[in-house]
Write a structure and sequence with these properties.
This protein has about 350 residues and is an alpha/beta fold. Helix content is about 50%, strand content about 15%. The protein has 2 domains: about 1-220, Rossmann fold, CATH 3.40.50; about 225-360.
Length: about 350
């Protein structure tokens, strides 16, 4: 059955690693957890336990991950903030997979998210037939996490309306959900917590109140600090996604990854890597996640319609779609970059420059 699933949850994808860490556990395990904080850190950052190699899930500041794990040991909720593509959701999923073995208790924040999705709703057929009862209650992921002493996830919390966000305040403060229709309330078991994510690009959608922010320990996830780290992130995720999606194209060579990451970093920073030339930024985020998507898309094009090896033609087609979002502004900025920066990078970029120029004409 798992072979038919497009994307396995982290706890299934890395089950061998999680089982190895649990079997080798020697440190104290907090109530409601399946492994110690030290083992969770090893799962996230990588290492070795016995003969099992633990692959790193997050390539970044180790101290930030330690703060995240330590927060979840206490009764504080965790809020991960950062630019799009800084692995907020990825880290959130893997933390819950390691701690509870279940990352599926998740609420995706949107403009359409309601308070009922945070608390509970009803099976209306049973409600009309038998009246209010626990049997007719439809529990939210947060309700379920409270009952089980586990962690629930709220993605893109700043996209939820303010009244939906406010529903979290009493839950995080009192660790209880009141059910007035039944005259009951549900208290959270030890181990309950919430991991929320917020996008700094969407800060103005529904900015979180100070009261809600105070209920969270806030950790800001930065973009990759150096080019080598960003290339490693992109390469490792592209290789994994290529296997999962069974792409027929060969993995691009190192020079292709270096070119894409260089272009993204320069456009993102508004200057060349050597700081000598200022560049007009584009409207897109151009994060590591965008670079991963671009490389996977290039492989899909090459495998389906090309030679099976990613060439400058496939990269140019994917770059055009990734960079030129707001057609007039982005196209002008991309044209300026091509002529003032990429054209002058030398022979290694000449083929990509020609292909990009043709597609941007």
């Amino acid at each position: 059955m798992s072979k038919e699933i497009l994307r396995l949850p982290a706890e299934q994808l890395y089950k061998t690693e999680i089982d190895a860490l649990i079997a080798a556990e020697k440190d104290p395990i907090p109530e409601g957890w399946q492994m110690s904080p030290r083992s969770v850190l090893t799962y996230i950052m990588g290492g070795k336990v016995g003969k099992t190699v633990i692959t790193p899930k997050y390539l970044g500041d180790r101290r930030l991950v330690e703060i995240c794990i330590a927060t979840l040991v206490t009764d504080r909720a965790l809020l991960l903030i950062g630019e799009p593509g800084t692995a907020k959701s990825w880290l959130s999923e893997h933390l819950t997979a390691a701690i509870n073995g279940n990352s599926s208790r998740v609420i995706q924040g949107t403009a359409g998210t309601t308070e009922e999705q945070i608390r509970y709703t009803w099976n209306y057929a049973m409600l009309l037939a038998n009246g209010p009862s626990f049997d007719s209650l439809v529990k939210s992921p947060i309700y379920t996490a409270m009952e089980q002493g586990a962690i629930a996830r709220v993605e893109e919390i700043s996209r939820c309306a303010s009244e939906v966000q406010d529903a979290l305040i009493s839950i995080l403060s009192e660790k209880r959900i009141s059910i007035p229709e039944l005259g009951e309330e549900v208290a959270a078991r030890r181990g309950f917590s919430v991991i929320a994510t917020a996008n700094t690009r969407d800060k103005g959608v529904n900015e979180m109140s100070s009261a809600l922010k105070r209920r969270f320990n806030i950790v800001i996830l930065p973009a990759p600090s150096d080019m080598a780290t960003e290339i490693d992130i992109v390469k490792s995720r592209v290789a994994q996604m290529s296997r999962d999606l069974k792409l027929t194209s060969k993995l691009p060579d190192d020079s292709a990854f270096e070119k894409v990451v260089t272009i993204f970093r320069e456009l993102r920073q508004g200057k060349t890597l050597d700081g000598q030339v200022k560049i007009k930024p584009t409207s897109g985020v151009l994060s590591a996640a965008e670079a991963i998507s671009l490389m996977v898309n290039s492989m899909a094009i090459s495998g389906s319609f090309g030679s099976g090896e990613v060439t400058d033609s496939e990269l140019a087609a994917a770059l055009q779609g990734a960079i030129v979002k707001d057609d007039d502004k982005d196209k002008a900025a991309w044209t300026e970059y091509l002529e003032n920066v990429m054209r002058k990078k030398g022979k290694g970029y000449s083929g990509l420059y020609a292909e990009c120029k043709e597609r941007n004409a």
